[in-house]
Structure formats: structure tokens, C-alpha cells
Design goal:
Keywords: Membrane, Transmembrane, Transmembrane helix. InterPro entries: HGSNAT_cat (IPR012429). Residues 22-249 form the Heparan-alpha-glucosaminide N-acetyltransferase catalytic domain. The chain crosses the membrane at residues 74-96, 108-127, 139-160, 172-191, 224-242, 254-273, 305-324, 368-387. By secondary structure, the protein is mainly α. The chain has a domain at 23-52 and 327-406. The chain is built from 16 helices and three strands. The chain has helices spanning 5-13, 24-46, 67-77, 80-101, 106-125, 127-136, 145-166, 169-193, 200-207, 223-243, 247-270, 303-326, 330-333, 335-342, 344-361, 369-394; strands at residues 141-143, 209-211, 217-219. Helix 2 packs across helix 3 (67-77), helix 7 crosses helix 10 and helix 8 runs antiparallel to helix 10.
Length: 406
């Protein structure tokens, strides 16, 4: 595989290099995703109850009355999680190729990614599990996003190893792209064949949800439905490798294609001409309007959900890259986003405690957008110096240190 020196610098710098330039557009988009996610969880802990329409059951008709609910549905709930998984897939691809260039075997890289995946799983099942019990005041099995991310990271490593061993360049495009669309297609077909099934395996592997049998559990993110976002990230990585300096132009073209496909498919869904694309459709007599376009299933994620999420995140990457090219000094003004993006796991773990802590200190929950924004910014102001110090700390560690994985 041939790389320019500039590309190698970017590849090496994504995770491990301390003296090379990181690709700032990726860091900034990752950081932006983190603060969007933080807004959602801040509102959960410090705000009043909000309306959302992200479950696979029910109707796509939007019934919310508050503009902030709709904004969160459009640009947080339907963007952040999909971007989180997509960016991880892209990062895994870049790391895999960089380590191959350094002389690592594909088996050694898979072992490394497996270790990172296990770390994510253990963090979810220990530290974040204990936090969930404490915050909610009850004991139950909780499967959050890190559990699914960890399993998907391991699967992504195995996928890349298979492609590398077969040494077929076209498979680098075809296999990830096939997984991106085949999995949601198969899941939706299975869903239509088993609409009333409530088995434990369905909850654990596909739909998620709450159950009290055989013990209390709450499954938020299931690995199989979310892996397509990681696979799409692997496809983007291959596109990155092949396109060189034109990669962001390709990303922009792809974003436009995804957006057009999303709009066409969503329109067919909502007018009742096609049930394919999402798990829920309007019933007879229901009136849909433009807000219903964003009432897509997130748990589990549908094809419509992925199309919108991928398009918005790709547009974000392109906007950051173009902005930095035109105004290089911009990076100085958005350095907190870059810091959050470079310490994403540390930010993720810490933000739960920060916003829950704020909720314990306030006497009245936020009932206006301005108050909500204040609590959100307060949390970010607390997180920024902590993430900055952690980023400095981990750069003093060897590249094989577990601290470099956060």
C-alpha cells in the first residue's frame, strides 16, 4: 500500500504520535459530537421532561410542541450516536493501516484492537454500571454504548484482517459497504416476520429495551444493529486511503448522495408507498408533516436513521476541513473541541459524573432553553481543563500504555 508522507503523518497522528500533526477535521468533528451528546445528557439530568420520537414502536407522527425538542431530535438524537460509531470505524481503519506501515502483523493489530474493545466493555460493566445504579437508585443490568462500541471495535479489526489477508483491494470497499446496508435490510425483514416477538435474545441482540426476565435489565445499544455505522466508517477509511487530497471532496459528494437518498426514501415512507427504510410507518388517519421526517427509529437504528446521520457527519467533516483551509487560525478558537476530540473516551466517562453532579447542586430544573444552555456550558467549562490535563498526561506515556487508549 502506497501512502504519501503527508498521509502517513495523518495516519500515524490520529491516535498515537505525539510530535506529528493530527488531522484536525476529524478531531473537531469528534469533539463536536461529544458536546452534542453532552447536551442530551445534561438535559436528561438537569432539565424538565422532554419529548422525543426515537423508538422503533409507535408512530412517526411528531407530537412535540417545544422547538428545543425538535432541534434535539434533528441534530442530536439522530446525529451524535451514528457519528460516534462511524468515526470509530474510520479511526480503526486509519490505525490499522498505520500499524501495518510500521511493520505490525495484522494479528498483532487485531490483538491490540481487541484489548481496546475489552477495555471499553469492562468500563461499561464496572465503572459506568456502578454510576447507573447510583444515579437511578436501583440495581439492574445496563448495556450502554461502550459495551456495543467495544464489541464493534473487535469485529471491525477482524473485518480488516480478513480484507488484508485476502489482499483484494475491491473488498476494502465492497465488504464494509455490504455490511452497512445488508445488516439493516436483514434486520428489518426479520422484524416484519416477527413483529410481536419479545424474546430475550431479540432484546439483547437487536431491539434493546427493558426487561425483567430473567432479571431486571435495560439494553440501550445492541451491537448488531449499530455495527453498520462502524462498517461505513471502514468504507470511509478506504475512500480516504484511495482519494488522497481529494478525500473531502469525495466525502461531500457522498454526503449529498446520502441526503438525497434519505429524503426520497423518507418521503416514500411517510406517504405510505414504501415501508422499507424505517421500522415504523404512519397508520390510516394519521397526518404527518415535515417534522415527521426526523421521527426515525434510533433503537434499533434504521436505514433512514443511518442515511441522515452519515450525511450530517460527513458534511461536518467537510465544513471543518474547508474552514481550516481558509482560516488556519480558526483552530485556536475551537481548541476546546479539538481537546474533547483527542480525549473522547475520558470526556465520555467524566461527563456523566459532571452533569449528574450539577443536577444534585441545582434547586430547580431548567425549564428554558437559556437555562439549559447555561448548565450545558457550565459542564463543558468543568470538563475542558480536565480533558486538557489528561491529554497532556497521556502524551507522556508510551504508545503501548493503557492510558493512551482513553
Amino acid at each position: 500500500m502506497n501512502y504519501s508522507q503527508q498521509t502517513l503523518t495523518h495516519l500515524t497522528g490520529i491516535y498515537d504520535a505525539t510530535n506529528t500533526t493530527r488531522l484536525e477535521a476529524l478531531d473537531l468533528q469528534r469533539g463536536f459530537i461529544m458536546i452534542l451528546m453532552a447536551f442530551s445528557h445534561c438535559r436528561e439530568y438537569t432539565g424538565i421532561n422532554n419529548y422525543s420520537n426515537i423508538q422503533s414502536t409507535g408512530s412517526p407522527v411528531w407530537k412535540g410542541q417545544y422547538w428545543l425538542d425538535l432541534w434535539q431530535q434533528m441534530f442530536v438524537s439522530t446525529v451524535a450516536a451514528g457519528g460516534f460509531f462511524m468515526m470509530m470505524g474510520l479511526g480503526v481503519f486509519i490505525l490499522f493501516q498505520a500499524r501495518l506501515k510500521e511493520g505490525w502483523s495484522s494479528t498483532a493489530i487485531v490483538h491490540y484492537l481487541t484489548l481496546r474493545g475489552i477495555l471499553l466493555i469492562l468500563l461499561q460493566l464496572t465503572l459506568l454500571h456502578l454510576f447507573e445504579w447510583f444515579a437511578m437508585g436501583e440495581i439492574y443490568f445496563y448495556a450502554g454504548v461502550l459495551l456495543s462500541l467495544g464489541l464493534c471495535m473487535i469485529a471491525a479489526g477482524l473485518c480488516l484482517q480478513w480484507i488484508h489477508r485476502h489482499n483484494q483491494q475491491t473488498w476494502g470497499y465492497f465488504l464494509p459497504l455490504a455490511l452497512t446496508f445488508a445488516i439493516p435490510l436483514l434486520l428489518q425483514w426479520w422484524w416484519t416476520q416477527n413483529p410481536t416477538s419479545s424474546s430475550l435474545w431479540r432484546i439483547l441482540l437487536i431491539t434493546g429495551g427493558a426487561s425483567h426476565q430473567p432479571f431486571p435489565m435495560d439494553i440501550n445499544f445492541t451491537p448488531i444493529p449499530w455495527f453498520p455505522a462502524v462498517a461505513f466508517g471502514l468504507f470511509l477509511g478506504k475512500l480516504w486511503q484511495a482519494s488522497g487530497e481529494k478525500v473531502f471532496k469525495r466525502f461531500g459528494q457522498l454526503a449529498l448522495l446520502l441526503f438525497i437518498t434519505w429524503f426520497a426514501l423518507r418521503t416514500l415512507n411517510l406517504i405510505g408507498w414504501c415501508a422499507f427504510g424505517d421500522y415504523k410507518s404512519p397508520t390510516a388517519g394519521e397526518t404527518v408533516h415535515w417534522a415527521s421526517y426526523f421521527s426515525m427509529s434510533k433503537f434499533p437504528p434504521s436505514i433512514d436513521y443511518f442515511l441522515w446521520s452519515f450525511a450530517i457527519n460527513l458534511i461536518g467533516l467537510c465544513l471543518w476541513q474547508q474552514s481550516l483551509r481558509r482560516w488556519p487560525q480558526l483552530v485556536l478558537y475551537v481548541s476546546p473541541l479539538k481537546t474533547f476530540g483527542q480525549s473522547a473516551l475520558f470526556f465520555f466517562i467524566l461527563h456523566w459524573f459532571v452533569y449528574y453532579g450539577i443536577s444534585l447542586l441545582i434547586t430547580t430544573r431548567a425549564n428554558t432553553a437559556l437555562t439549559m444552555a447555561g448548565f450545558w456550558m457550565l459542564g463543558l467549562a468543568i470538563l475542558y481543563p480536565l480533558c486538557k490535563q489528561y491529554r497532556i498526561f497521556k502524551r507522556t506515556k508510551s504508545r503501548h500504555s493503557i492510558w493512551r487508549m482513553f
